[in-house]
C-alpha cells in the first residue's frame, strides 16, 4: 500500500510513539568499560588525547569499577601500564603483574562484576610490538619479523596467569595466527576449562588506535602492525579470521574498530551465531570529544547515536569509553 494510505510519519509523531517502535535498544549491561591500570596509589591521570579517560592506579580503578557497576555496567576490560618493559613481556604474565594485581583487587572488592583481561604483549615489550621480534637475515626484504609461533607460548602463559588472578574472560588482541587454540588448550590444562575466550577476531590495522597508544603507552618503537593486524580493505578475510577463531574455540568474537567497520559487524552478525562484540576505539572517542569541544557537534547526541548504530549493525556488546556516561543517560 502506498501513499496516501501509508504514511510512515504516523509513528514518528511523538516521543512515546518513537520509543514504542524503536528497533534497537541500548542497555548498560551490554557495555564493556575499558580501564588503563598504572602503578602507584591515588593516581588518576587524564590521557591527553582522550579527555575524560584516565590512567588509574589500582585503588582508583576499584572506585571506578564500583561507580560503573552502580550504574549497571557489568563488565570491564583491563589494560596494563607496567613498571618496566623487556623483550619477553614479563609484565604481561608475571604473577604480580599490574593487571593481575588489579584483577585480584577488583574481584575481592566489587561484587558481580565481569573482569575481562586484554591479552597482548605490546604494552609489556620494550619494542611495543604484539609478539616476539626477531631481526631477519638477508635475503629477507623486511628488517625484522614478528615471530608468530614463539609468541603463542607467551600469550598462553599470560592468559593462564590472568585466569589465576580471577579474570573472568580472556580477550586476546594480538592477531597472531593460532593464538585462540593455544590459549584454549593452556587454560584447559591449568584447570580453567570454564573460562571463556572473547577473541579480537577481526582487528584491523587502524589509524583510529592512535590515542589508545598514548593511553596504554604501547606505540611500536619501529615499523607498524600491518604484518599481523588486518588490512582495512578486507571483509572476506575478516570472515576467515572469525571462522578460524571459532574453530579454535573462541566463545565470543569481536570486530575492532567499530564505526568505520559497521559493514564487517553486520556481515559477522549475519554469518556467525556467537555473541558479537564491537570496540568503539580511542580514535572514535577522540573525534567526538574534539568536535564537541569546538561546539561543532552535540556531544551527548552523537555519543548515543554512535552507540545505537554500532548496536543496530549487530553488535550485542560494545566496548566503549562512554560506558559510564551512556549508562547514566539510559537510566
Ligand atoms: Zn598489542
Q: Report the sheet-strand fraction.
A: 15-25%
Rg calc? 20 Å
Count of β-strands: 12
Q: Which distinct ligands sit in these coordinates? A: zinc ion
Mean pLDDT: 96
Helical stretch tally: 12
Main structural class:
alpha/beta
Oligomer description: single chain
Q: In this structure, how is the largest beta sheet organized?
A: 10 strands, mixed
Can you describe this structure?
The protein has 331 residues and is of the alpha/beta class. 39% of the residues lie in helices and 18% in strands. The chain contains twelve helices and twelve strands. The strands form two sheets. Strands 1, 2, 3, 4, 5, 8, 9, 10, 11 and 12 form a ten-stranded mixed beta sheet that branches. The model has no long low-confidence stretch (mean pLDDT 96). It binds zinc ion (ZN). Residues 120, 122, 130, 173-174 line the site of zinc ion.
How would you summarize the topology of this molecule?
Layout: H1 15-21, E1 31-37, E2 44-47, E3 50-56, H2 58-70, E4 75-80, H3 90-93, H4 98-109, E5 114-119, E6 132-135, E7 144-147, H5 148-164, E8 169-172, H6 179-189, E9 198-203, H7 210-215, H8 236-248, E10 252-256, H9 262-271, E11 276-279, H10 282-293, H11 299-313, E12 317-319, H12 323-330
Bound molecules: zinc ion.
